[in-house]
Amino acid sequence: MRLRVSKAEALTPSIRLIRLEAPDGAPLPGFDAGAHLELEFGAGAATVQRKYSLVSPGAEWGYYEIAVKRNEYGRGGSVFLHDALAVGDLLEAGAPVSEFRIARDGRRFILIAGGIGITPMLGLAAELEQSGLPYALHYSARSEAEMALRERLPQGGHGTVSLYFTGAAGAARMDVAALLDGCAADKDAHVYVCGPGRLIDAVRIAADERGIREHRIHFESFGPGWEAGDEKVRLTLTESGMELDVEPGTTLLDAMEAAGAWIASECRRGECGACITSYSGGQPIHRDSCLTVQQRASSFCPCVSWAAPGEPLLLNI
């Protein structure tokens, strides 16, 4: 479906709120809490598809709202939506997709958000509040000025909200291990986390150490991204003999596909594990959210992960 930008405003120096409506003002398809919207647009010479969590109320079907963090080391989509997109522009979008739903067997919920990871949590917390189910929302950002959508945090009586500032001297930081203490014994407790890969990893590791079953841990990542220190990677595909040099700005999966290699894939966000590939040499930099520590010793997700420069990364493809 085609949507028109009816509002675009800065929430913080790095996060922009974008409101989308039908060009003719018609009602839009409804969605569940935690749903995301996939947009298609031209960013430079390329046409890209990007997924963004909806922050507008699910009951409000006259518009969709997303909050986008500008990422200089991303794939270009967020930079376009910050720097080039204007009110009145048209974008193509699919119907909202719900993959981050409230577990129906849950009776208590812990919601953990890091930075822009607050976006799906707003809907989840609102649904829990309306359902009368107890929850605790923990939201971490670098500073108060960078804590987007703070005014939309729930104020009701069924849950608690705790805020943390990682860049403030002497401020209390989120202790993930402490948050999960007690969950192992409470079989009805479910944990939701969205944010940087390091935060998701910390939650998964803490949950594993406490014997919390995987089906009670729900996470949503930001997909592939790059860091300032990333350098060119040399790939060697051991079965085909193909060698590739890949620069930051494209994923290893995309580079291999462009060169003619076939790798199974699905989410392309390091969550589903469809693209898991074994490796036999090199120094991978894991950025997935699906592999265990043990699996990372020999396996790799090329849709989001990277590798150290120098020694080639040997993928068994």
Explained architecture:
Helix content is 16%, strand content 31%. It is of the alpha/beta class and 317 residues long. A 6-stranded antiparallel β-sheet has the order 4-3-6-1-2-5, with helices on one face. A 5-stranded parallel β-sheet has the order 9-8-7-10-11, sandwiched between helices. The chain has a 5-stranded mixed β-sheet with strand order 13-12-18-14-16, covered by helices on one side. Pfam families: FAD_binding_6 (PF00970), Fer2 (PF00111), NAD_binding_1 (PF00175).
CATH architecture type of the largest domain: 3-Layer(aba) Sandwich
Which class of secondary structure composition applies to the elements? alpha/beta
User: Given the structure, what is the number of helices?
Assistant: 6
By DSSP, the count of extended strands is: 18
What radius of gyration results from the CA coordinates? 20 Å
State the helical fraction.
10-25%
Order of helices and strands: EEEEEHEEHEEHEHEEEHEEHEEE
CATH topology of the largest domain: Rossmann fold
- Overall structural domain count: 3
Q: Assign the CATH superfamily of the largest domain.
A: Nucleotide-binding domain of ferredoxin-NADP reductase (FNR) module
CATH class of the largest domain: Alpha Beta
Question: What is the terminal separation in angstroms?
Answer: 38 Å
Major sheet, described briefly? 6 strands, antiparallel
Transmembrane segments: 109-126
Pfam families: FAD_binding_6, Fer2, NAD_binding_1
Protein name: Oxidoreductase
InterPro entries: 2Fe-2S_ferredoxin-like_sf, 2Fe-2S_ferredoxin-type, 2Fe2S_fd_BS, Beta-grasp_dom_sf, Cbr1-like_FAD-bd_dom, FAD-bd_FR_type, FNR_nucleotide-bd, MRET
